[in-house]
Amino acid sequence: MTRQAAALDRAANDDEDPRWAQAVTSEADRRRALEGRPPLQPWWSTKTEPELHERARALGLLG
Fold first, then answer.
1. Which residue in 46, 44, 36, 41 sits closest to 4, CA to CA?
2. Residue 5 Cα to chain centre, angstroms
3. Whole-number Å distance between alpha carbons of 16 and 32
4. How far is the C-alpha of 47 from the C-alpha of 62, rounded, in Å?
5. Three-state SS string across 5-56, please?
6. How far apart are CA 22 and CA 33, in angstroms?
7. Which of 1, 11, 12, 26 is 20 to 30 Å apart from 19, CA to CA?
8. How far is CA 9 from CA 5, 19, 33, 37, 62, in A?
9. Alpha carbons 63 and 57: distance in angstroms, whole number
10. Is residue 19 within 8 Å of residue 63, measured between CB atoms?
11. How far is CA 31 from CA 10, 17, 48, 51, in A?
């Protein structure tokens, strides 16, 4: 499950610069902290295993 989530995360971000994505997330988390809200969660952390499996299949990550 962990490997599949990591592969999905990489596939979802193939077209963006990781430094840019980290900077955007850090800024959003900073603003959320000022408002007393929790930091953002990775998109895959709220998905069930079947949802992750379906996403992996849709991306052609399953062989």
1. 44
2. 8
3. 23
4. 18
5. HHHHHHHHCCCCCHHHHHHHHHHHHHHHHHCCCCCCCCHHHHCCHHHHHHHH
6. 16
7. 1
8. 6, 15, 24, 24, 14
9. 9
10. no
11. 25, 22, 28, 30
- The residue whose two tokens read 């840019």 is 20
CB atoms within 10 A of CB 51: 11
Residues 6+ apart with CB under 8 A from 1: 49, 52
User: Are the CB atoms for 29 and 40 separated by under 8 Å?
Assistant: yes
| Reported pTM | 0.52
